[in-house]
Amino acid sequence: MMKDVDPKGTSRAYAFEMWMDAPMPMVTFIKTLDVSRLVRMCRRNGLKFNMLMLWYVGRTASGVKEFYMLPVGRKLIQYDNLAVNTIVADSRGEVSSCDIPFSKTLL
Known about the structure:
With 107 residues, the chain is an alpha+beta fold. Helices cover 30% and strands 25% of the residues. The chain is globular. The two termini are 24 Å apart.
């Protein structure tokens, strides 16, 4: 479910205003992480690293209320659920963008 939100009444008012006027709006987060525990967990449980990493990104983002609001056209929309966007390679070696719905249940 989604609903229109008045950007001026949110903590995203300034970001929304800047996003609407940006020639190429994009947000990039860069963070150096020690993933050695995650790698061990993947090996121990036979899980794929990328799958588990995406789940942790979703789990972290789900605790930030601003991530539920996204600009769509010239409106700010608030969503009930999150999805983690990732780039995946297909069988032909090409890449596609893929939204993976987040669930608090890991497996």
